[in-house]
Structures are given as structure tokens and as C-alpha cells.
Amino acid sequence: MAAALGEGSHVVLVAGASPGPAASVVAANLAATLARTHSEAVLVCAALRDSVAPELFGLAEGRGLAEVLAGQATVGDVARGPASAPGLWVIPPGADTSLAEYNLQHDTAKALTAQLRRDARFVVIEVQSAEDGPDTLALAEFADAALLTVETQRTRRQDADGVLRQLRQMRTQLLGVAVLPPVRDGVTVRPPRPAQPQVASMSGGPR
Questions:
Q1: Counting beta carbons within 10 angstroms of the beta carbon of residue 32, is it exposed (0 to 12), middle (13 to 18) or buried (19 or more)?
Q2: Partners of 115 in beta bridges
Q3: CA distance 201 to 133
Q4: Phi-psi domain of 200 (left: phi exceeds 0; alpha: psi -120 through 50; beta: other)
Q5: Residue 91: is it exposed, middle or buried by C-beta count within 10 angstroms (0-12/13-18/19+)?
Q6: Which of 76, 84, 104, 199 is most buried (CB neighbours < 10 A)?
């Protein structure tokens, strides 16, 4: 992925074609890998109802993306650096995800992605195209590329086709498709690894 995108900062969308945590699991692993092998990365949990990334990284619930979009918090207030993934910053869905339903607007999303692009080389945004509520797939307009996530025996062909159609309309490059077996809603996670030293940069995290 890094080779395909080239130099500079990039925003990558991980889109789930069917309800469930699959996109969140893929996005979390991708963001952690990019942070470990390249440079600092930010994971944005925009799959508001299906995100399991905070749990995967052992992060407590609290303010996040919803509060940033509503103007009640800054990115610096809500971004957290998991001890198990040095170089990674996670923006969780938020304490009150209903705030995002009205505040996920074009100008707000554009400003947020532009800020994150300045703060980190890689910004990974997990979205769920089929969830009720805000159309988080609209964030593809501000992404350089996308990765589609499908689950065998769960994702319908028409669901995947719908996501691909929207990506084409927004001229977002499709890098590939992650095919997973059905992921249960209750994802079992291992405890995070012991804390490791983090290299201080980005002035202590996203602003």
C-alpha cells in the first residue's frame, strides 16, 4: 500500500460493505502496521456503531470523533496513543455518537482530514457504508485511496457493488479488497502488550 501511494502524506479509507466489525479490524491492523513500519499513523474510528478498534488497543471509552465534529473537543483532546502500538494515534468514535449525525458535513470533514494529513504520514479512516446514521462513506471524497472489506457468507454482492459505485463516483482509487470470514460482533481481543517507549514527535500527538 505504501509503495502504491508513494511519498507524502496519505488518507486511506477502509470501507465495510456490510454491517459488522470487519472494517474496524482491518483498519486497526493496517494503521498499526503502517505506524510500525513507516511513520506515525492516525486511525479515525468513523464506523460509529461498529468500531471495535478502541477495544482492540485496550483504550477506555470516552470523547472522540463525534465531539470533534460537533466542536466540543479538538483532535488533540481525544487522540490517544496505545501503549501496544508505538507511533499510532487513535481517534475513537466518541461518547455521544449521535453528535456526528448532524455535524458530519462537507466542510467539517474536509478541514478534519486536512489537519490529520498535516499531522501524520498515514491517516486510516474506518467507515461502514451500511450503518444507519451519517453517511460516513462520504469521507472517501477526501481520501487518496480505499480498501474494501467484505465478509464471506455475510456481504451481499449488491452491497459490495454499491460501495464500489460510490467510490468510482468520488474518483477514489481502490487499492484492493480484504476478504474475511464472518467476524462476530463480539470480538475477542488479547490484552495489549506491555508498554513500550514511544518516540516523541508531532508535538506529542495530533493537534
A1: buried
A2: none
A3: 35
A4: beta
A5: buried
A6: 104
Sequential DSSP letters for 100-115: HHHH--HHHHHHHHHH
Classify residue 13 by its DSSP letter.
Answer: E
The Cα–Cα gap between 89 and 206 comes to 8
Cα 141 from Cα 105, distance rounded (Å): 12
How confident is the prediction along the chain (207 residues), in pLDDT tens digits per residue? 878 888 889 999 999 998 889 999 999 999 999 999 887 899 999 988 889 999 999 998 899 999 999 999 999 999 999 988 889 999 999 999 888 877 888 888 899 999 999 989 999 999 987 555 556 888 888 999 999 999 988 889 999 998 999 899 989 999 999 999 988 765 555 544 544 444 334 445 666
- Yes or no: say if 20 and 50 are a contact pair by the CB < 8 Å rule: yes
According to CATH, the superfamily of the domain at 9-182 is: P-loop containing nucleotide triphosphate hydrolases (3.40.50.300)
What backbone phi and psi angles, to 5 degrees, belong to 151? -115, 130
**Predicted TM-score (pTM) of this structure:** 0.86
Segment (H or E) for 41? strand 41-45
Closest CA to 17 of 200, 135, 141, 148: 148
| DSSP tag of 145 | E
